[in-house]
Amino acid sequence: MTGNQSPIDLYTAGHVAVGFAARRWFGLGLVPVLTLGLLWEVTEDTLKTRNPGIFPLASPDSKVNALFDLGAFVLGYWLAGLNK
Predict the structure, then answer these.
(1) Residue 22 near residue 77 (C-beta atoms within 8 A)
(2) Nearest 5°: CA angle at 35, between 27 and 64?
């Protein structure tokens, strides 16, 4: 499978980093992090269709990839809470 089709791809680490930053640096709770992650996943494919040049890989995400991306946001959130 190619990027954006596999459950875990090159962009998974970026999703973890955003979840981490949202909690650690911006103090967001779990619900706002989940909401932001969900909003991103819902709008991402539309943005890729309208502006493919701003994405390194503009192919649409599979449903499984989108779910794993959302899980990656939560993993980052959880990691940011360790050793607090």
Answers:
(1) yes
(2) 120
Closest to 63 measured CA to CA, from 45, 80, 81? 45
**For the chain, how long is the longest CA-to-CA vector?**
41
- Spatial distance between the Cα atoms of 33 and 59, rounded to a whole number of angstroms: 24
Distance between CA atoms of residues 81 and 28, nearest Å: 11
> Mean pLDDT across the chain, nearest whole number?
93
**How far is the C-alpha of 80 from the C-alpha of 49, rounded, in Å?**
33
Whole-structure pTM value: 0.89
The residue ranges of every structural domain in the chain are 20-81
Residue pLDDT, tens place only, 14-54: 999 999 999 999 999 999 999 999 999 999 999 999 999 99
Burial class (CB in 10 A: 0-12, 13-18, 19+), 20: buried
